[in-house]
Amino acid sequence: MKASVCSVPSSYQVYSNMEAQFAMTAGVLSFLLALATLASCNTEGDILYAQRLAWKDPNKVLQTWDPTLVNPCSWFHITCNNDNSVIRVDLGNAGLSGPLVPDLRRLRNLQYLELYDNSLNGTIPATLGNLTKLISLDLYDNKLTGAIPTTLGAIRTLRFLRLYENRLTGPIPASLGNLKRLEILQLQKNALSGSIPSSLGNIKTLASLKLNDNRLSGVVPLEILSLVIYGLTELNIAKNNLAGTVRSSGFRVTTIIQDKLKTA
């Protein structure tokens, strides 16, 4: 008698069917993973292309940023990891102008954002605080305005934060004291105001702290002065409105650059 279509298959058939189902499942998962990787690469390309459209590029350094390519890894000034995900954007001294797009936050593996010595304007997007793998953020020597986002204090991997020679205003965020791996913090030659947050004294890895040529007031916290013990090699606080000093040319006292002390 022939088995009905509803009959229970033999153990061999069960094994074979399970094996086939496993192979099919593995194949589907592999395909979905490849599709997800491709979608991620395309997404990063879309983000960077949107940034290209937001900038003026008189020197045509972004000509290779072609959105029709599978991913941006072949573009000039872009570096990717082995998974074809963007880890570096190197566009220092490229003649670019225009704003930073908030969607840069979605470059989830970005480690270096090097955009120094351009004519970038607008504000620093608060969304950059989502770049949780960022090691270096170099936006110095531009025309950026507004406040330093407090969200930058969430980038615990950050080692270099250089925002000097812009037009930044407002206070130095106390949240920057959360950057326990920071080695260089350079905010000089802006229009920053308010007091120097004592929380910066939490950064025992700090080697260079430059806050000169701003509008800072109050006193220099002892917590920051104590960083010399841990390896701070340069502290420049000259040309501010700090108590106990006058606005004049700074001079070096061991590793500290400050205004001349008041004598009267």
UniProtKB/TrEMBL annotation:
Residues 101-212 form the Disease resistance R13L4/SHOC-2-like LRR domain. InterPro entries: LRR_dom_sf (IPR032675), LRR_N_plant-typ (IPR013210), LRR_R13L4/SHOC2-like (IPR055414). Keywords: Leucine-rich repeat, Repeat, Signal. It comes from the Eukaryota. It holds the Pfam family LRR_14. Residues 42-81 form the Leucine-rich repeat-containing N-terminal plant-type domain. The keyword Cell cycle does not apply. This is Leucine-rich repeat-containing N-terminal plant-type domain-containing protein. It comes from Urochloa decumbens.
